Amino acid sequence: MGTATGPRHPSGGGPAPGVPGGRRRRPHGVIAVGFVVGVILLAALVAAISLAIVHAMSDDDEPSGSGVVPTTSLATPPATNAGPPAEVTQDPKSADDTGTGTTAGRCSYFSTPPVGRGADLPRPASREPEGRFTMQIKTAQGTMTATLDADKAPCAVYAVYQLAQQGYYDGSECPWQMDNPATGFAVLQCGDPSGTGGDGSPGFYYDAENTEDTDFGYGVIAMADTGRAGANGAQFIISFANRDGQGIGQLAGPFTVIGRITEGFDILDRLVDPGILGDQAKGRPVSGARLQSVTVER
User: Fold this and answer.
1) Most C-beta atoms within 10 A of its C-beta, which of 51, 107, 207, 298?
2) What Å distances lie between residue 111 and 135, 208, 260, CA to CA?
3) Average predicted confidence (pLDDT) for the chain
């Protein structure tokens, strides 16, 4: 007889004690770890979506033209106007004192320190002036009328026109009178607000123009010497030599002739006939010639 050992169970064992149906319970630690991982993944997804939305909104708020510039735009600068406009509104005095300035067609005006009263640079224009201008020169002795020829000396005529528009000549002196019978050079120099008789720069200069084919007779008006080789400024000279002739043509070479007096020759005579102080070949006019005003119109 064998020994009784109790009820037998199939190999592999029976259901775990206390678990219905024989299933094993999962450990609580595994479930907790899976839950935490899921929460982390969900939070990461939400954060990524939020960043994408913020970035899109910030791109919409960027100013126009910001961001990466194509390399072609860096290599090719924007086109600029070939010439200045017919008229501009900015102050022409913005030009500095390093040789910059303004242009009127082919005429260039360069800034320089003024002597005495300064003036604005001539206003930029798309082309130089043409044709005839009328100049009125008012003095205490009376008014002289002159015709200026912009076809022969457009740059000088435009400069005088601009200076007259600004009232630059008003109240200025005629500091020099010169009379040299040996050379036929007899002129009254006017348009110096400083009253010194020096170069009298208005604050700019420009190239002299060749007017050698013009005579230098009685009543001819030309730009005075500025002391700067080949350059003109503001002062002008009025010839009173050879009152009965055409003048000496070669004297027009060193000066830019801009026109001639057409009315008021008697006024010119009153200004120069009293002579020169000290009875010299060059000095201040005895008449105390002064320009009350100068106007230039088309």
Assistant:
1) 107
2) 25, 15, 28
3) 74
Distance from C-alpha of 155 to C-alpha of 159, rounded to nearest angstrom:
6
Adjacent-strand bridge partners of 232: 206
Closest CA to 102 of 118, 85, 122, 76: 122
Tokens of 208: 């002299």
Report the run of H or E that residue 109 belongs to, with start and end.
Answer: strand 107-111
Q: Is 44 helix (H, G, I), strand (E, B) or coil?
A: helix
Cα–Cα distances in angstroms (integers) from residue 169 to residues 22, 33, 93, 136, 181, in the given order = 121, 97, 18, 11, 29
Residue 206 tokens, joined: 């420009």
Closest CA to 285 of 267, 270, 263, 265: 270
Instruction: Read off φ and ψ for residue 245, nearest 5 degrees.
Output: -130, -170
This prediction has a pTM of 0.66
* pLDDT score recorded for residue 17: 41
C-alpha–C-alpha distance, residues 110 and 134, integer Å: 26
DSSP secondary structure, 134-190, as one string: EEEEEETTEEEEEEEETTT-HHHHHHHHHHHHTTTTTTEE--EEEEETTTTEEEEEE
> H-helix or E-strand containing 238?
strand 236-239
What's the one-letter identity of residue 94?
A: S
Q: How confident is the model at residue 86 (pLDDT cuts 50, 70, 90)?
A: very low
Residue 46 has pLDDT above 70, yes or no: no
Here the tokens at position 54 are: 């913020």
Query: What is the residue-wise DSSP string for 216-231?
Result: --TTEEEEPP-SSTTE
Which position has the token pair 């206003």? 123
User: Residue 220 and residue 246: Cα distance in Å, rounded?
Assistant: 10
